[in-house]
Write a structure and sequence with these properties.
alpha+beta, 9% strand, 6-stranded mixed β-sheet, 49% helix, 278 residues, Glutathione S-transferase Yfyf (Class Pi), Chain A, domain 2, single chain, 2 domains
């Protein structure tokens, strides 16, 4: 079981690389520290990783990995619907103004390190722990192929399909273009899973990267009925306790926005039509 040592009530303000290694006592009560009971006892207690997070398919990748590895971490909510991803402190660790991002106070050489981009975070945590990201080069290449397949294909295309099907239903070209591409990608995934139990053979960060996006597209016209191997894989993934916990992190934050029409309208204004800020 995981234990929450403090309730999440707001955003923490310890975002800069230089300050990341020192606990911010002023905002400590605003973070939720999570520690798996499976974590092995160590002579030196590991300091929690700060995870800048909002409950989306990209955010879930990292909560799942942290839960699977049994690493202690703190949730620092980044409400993308309110534009908190544009705050100057967050920009220092995530120059693309996108969550998730992490600050690990026990980085290489015992010095703090920040990492942005979900795929890079998964690779970093895999190297740090030696879990779900094999050291053997051939096996690692297989994992990276499917990790980058998700980053470059499944995630972006699923996001576009959801956008047009939800917010621009009258744009028939956009709806068909991206729904068809999601269908094609699921076909690729289905063929791979006809030969492998997991995407790269053994369970890995590639599977963690994909699960949230497959759950997201499963709502499209019962689309997974056409891809039984993907459907079986999804059910297998969701049955893993760490995956279930990772998907549940921050659920109440998402539900609050979903039940507030004004919050939804504000989110649309902030998230859509972004241009460079100079």
């Amino acid at each position: 079981m995981l234990k929450a040592k403090a309730a999440v009530t707001g955003r923490a303000k310890r975002a800069s690389r230089a300050a990341a290694a020192k606990p911010n006592k002023k905002n400590k009560s605003k973070q939720s520290t999570r520690l798996s009971s499976r974590s092995p006892a160590k002579s030196k207690k590991a300091r929690p990783i700060a995870l800048y997070y909002w409950p989306t398919p990209n955010g879930w990748k990292i909560t799942i990995m942290l839960e699977e590895c049994g690493l202690p971490y703190e949730i620092v909510p980044v409400n993308i619907g309110k534009g908190e991803q544009f705050e100057p402190d967050f920009l220092k660790i995530a120059p693309n103004n996108r969550m998730p991002a992490i600050v690990d106070p026990d980085g290489p050489g015992g010095r703090a390190i920040s990492v942005f981009e979900s795929g890079a975070i998964l690779q970093y945590l895999g190297r740090k722990t030696g879990k779900f990201y094999p050291a053997d080069e051939r096996k690692r290449v297989a994992v990276e192929e499917w990790l980058f397949w998700q980053m470059a294909g499944l995630g972006p295309m699923a996001g576009q399909a959801n956008h047009f099907r939800t917010y621009a239903k009258d744009n028939e070209y956009g709806v068909k273009r991206y729904t068809d591409e999601v269908h094609r990608l699921l076909g690729v995934m289905n063929r791979q899973l006809s030969r492998k139990k997991f995407l790269a053979g053994d369970y890995s960060i590639a599977d963690m990267a994909c699960i949230g996006w497959v759950i997201a597209v499963a709502r499209i016209d019962n689309i997974l009925d056409e891809f039984p191997n993907v459907k079986t894989w999804m059910e297998k993934m969701r049955s893993r306790p760490a995956v279930s916990r990772g998907l549940a992190i921050g659920r109440e934050l998402r539900e609050q926005q979903a039940n507030d029409p004004k919050a939804q309208e504000l989110a649309r204004k902030i998230l859509f039509g972004q241009r460079a800020r100079t």
